[in-house]
Structure formats: structure tokens, C-alpha cells
Amino acid sequence: MNDASMFQLAGKTALVTGAAKGIGADIAEQLLRLGANVVLADVDDRGEETAERWRQGGYTARFIHSDVSKSADVARMVAYAEEAFGGLDILVNNAGIFPRADLSETDETFWNRVMDINLKGAYLACQAAVPGMIQRGGGSIINIGSLHATKGAPETLAYAISKGGLVTLTRNLAGALAVHKIRVNCVHPGWVASDGELARLASNGEDGDSLEQAVRRMPMGRMQTGADIAAAVVFIASAMAGQITGQQLTVDGGIGLR
Ligand code: NAD
């Protein structure tokens, strides 16, 4: 019989990449509030301030500088999370960049950078984390995708393809790892006015207009928040979702239905 205590994550350890700010910081916060120990990883060292703020609030948060596109950094990040709290239960591959470029604008360097962070970063983190999870008797891996993974977005070509790759990674690993009680799922955010998204819009000179247009296009009358995405992540991380693996959960207020 399920009960609400199955949402609790006390005693679990989570690692969230790209958690210095934006959606990743909101995911880390929800995991902490449900009792998990959380390691925040990011190339942005402001993650240390974020972790310190939560430590002062009595939560067990740590920060490690890590570039997910570099295998040595990823190995160090996973080892740190395992050692800090005695093992890793939850891995959230959230770090990502979303620069705009269509086919004609996408050169090889640009393509490689987007793939290295958004797709290779997740594969490296899974590869580093899975042996420990197998030893521990299970785990939950959550990849942060995008609506663009399945709908396509020619104006952000490399980004959309990197997120499509995350769906394929999710399904392949879920099939291979179910026997070890490791669940692998994907959460697709709709449109969140995160730090990164606001900076991207501002650099294109379209912040005010685009945000207004975005809200008008939202069937439920508002954009999504990082907390909306985090709610889906903590559900999937919890024992409540113990039989859910290989799935995609879209949190977009219905925008993808249009
Ligand atoms: P954000 O830019 O606000 O935050 C992303 C974080 O990732 C930053 O702290 C950044 O420093 C970090 N990061 C970037 N490259 C890194 C690297 N190589 N190694 C480690 N950390 C790195 O962006 P966000 O909107 O919070 O996006 C989080 C995730 O959600 C991304 O994967 C993004 O693609 C996805 N997403 C966002 C939206 C949206 O509307 N904001 C929509 C769909 C999907």
C-alpha cells in the first residue's frame, strides 16, 4: 500500500548537474526539502553560495565545480558525491546550453560544444554513477530533456538533436539497467524563464516581447517555473515512481498539444 511517506527522500543522496542556478537549483532545493543530501555540480562557482545558503538553513548541500563535458571532471564529481554521503541514489542530468542556430549557422565547433555538454555530459555521468548504484542495489537517473527533443526545432538544430539523443539514452539505459533496479527517465520542461533563458532572450533583444508572447501561447495561462519541473523530478526520484522507467514526463502546461 502506497502512502505519502513514499515521497520522502530522507537518507537518499542526489547529484544535480547545472545546479548553480535556474531549473537545476530548483530541483536541488526540492530534493533537499524532501530530506535528500544533495551535491550541486556546475561550471559556475556561484553554486557554492547556493549550497552555503541551504547549509545555513540546516540542509545537507555541497557544491563541486565540474564541467560535465570533461570525463575527468565527471568522474571526480560522481566520486565526490559517493564519498560525501556514502553512496549515490539519484542522478539528475540537468546541465545544458541552448544556443540558437539553424543548419546553415551551425558549424562543427558549435555542434560539438552543444553535444559535449547536453548529451556527452549525461552519458559520462551515467557511466560514472551506474557501478556505484549497482553495488547499492538500485538508483534513479533523471535526464532533463526538452519539448524540442520530439517536436523538433530547426532554429535550435543541434540543441534539439542533443535532447533527442537524451531520450534515446534514457530508453536504452532503462532497458539495460532495470535488472539492477536502476530506473532511467526523462523530464521535458516546457518554457521556463530561467536565468539562462532570460539571458538568451536578452542577448537576442527579444526578452520583453518574447515573454509576453510566450504567456499568450500557454494554454494554462502561464509559463512553467523551475518548481514545476522540480515537482516532476522529485516524484520520479521517489519510491512512489518505483515501477516507472524508460519514460518521458512532459511538464509544459499543455503547450506541446498545440
Ligand atoms: P540555465 O542556463 O539557467 O542553467 C543551466 C546551468 O547549467 C547553469 O548554471 C550553467 O552554468 C550550467 N552549465 C552549463 N554548462 C555546463 C557544463 N559544461 N558543466 C556543468 N554545468 C554547466 O538553464 P535552465 O533553463 O535552468 O536549463 C536547465 C536544463 O533545462 C537544460 O538542460 C535545458 O536545456 C533544459 N530546458 C530548459 C528550458 C527552459 O525553458 N528554460 C526548456 C526546456 C529544457
List the helices and strands and how they pair.
Elements: E1 13-17, H1 22-33, E2 37-42, H2 47-56, E3 61-65, H3 71-85, E4 90-93, H4 108-136, E5 139-144, H5 148-151, H6 157-177, E6 182-189, H7 195-203, H8 207-217, H9 226-237, E7 248-251
Parallel strand pairs: 1-2, 1-4, 2-3, 4-5, 5-6, 6-7
Nicotinamide-adenine-dinucleotide (NAD) binds next to helix 1 and helix 7.
Q: How many individual β-strands?
A: 7
What's the helix count? 9
| pLDDT < 50 stretches | none
Q: Which sequence of strands runs across the widest sheet?
A: 3-2-1-4-5-6-7
The pLDDT mean sits at: 95
Main β-sheet description: 7 strands, parallel
List of distinct ligands in this structure: nicotinamide-adenine-dinucleotide
Query: What amount of the residues lies in strands?
Result: 5-15%
Pattern of helices and strands: EHEHEHEHEHHEHHHE
Overall geometric form: globular
Q: Which range best describes the helical content: under 10%, 10-25%, 25-40%, 40-55%, 55-70% or over 70%?
A: 40-55%
Q: Whole-number radius of gyration? A: 17 Å
Kindly name the structural category. alpha/beta
Structure overview:
The chain has helices at 22-33, 47-56, 71-85, 108-136, 148-151, 157-177, 195-203, 207-217, 226-237; strands at 13-17, 37-42, 61-65, 90-93, 139-144, 182-189, 248-251. The protein has 258 residues and is an alpha/beta fold. α3 packs parallel to α4 and α4 packs parallel to α6. Strands 3-2-1-4-5-6-7 form a seven-stranded parallel sheet, sandwiched between helices. The chain is globular and about 45 Å long. It contains nine helices and seven strands. It binds nicotinamide-adenine-dinucleotide. Residues 17-18, 20-24, 42-44, 66-69, 94-98, 117, 144, 146, 189, 191-192, 194-197 line the site of nicotinamide-adenine-dinucleotide. Nicotinamide-adenine-dinucleotide binds at residues 17-18, 20-24, 42-44, 66-69, 94-98, 117, 144, 146, 189, 191-192, 194-197. InterPro entries: KR_dom, NAD(P)-bd_dom_sf, Sc_DH/Rdtase_CS, SDR_fam. Keywords: Oxidoreductase. Pfam families: adh_short_C2.
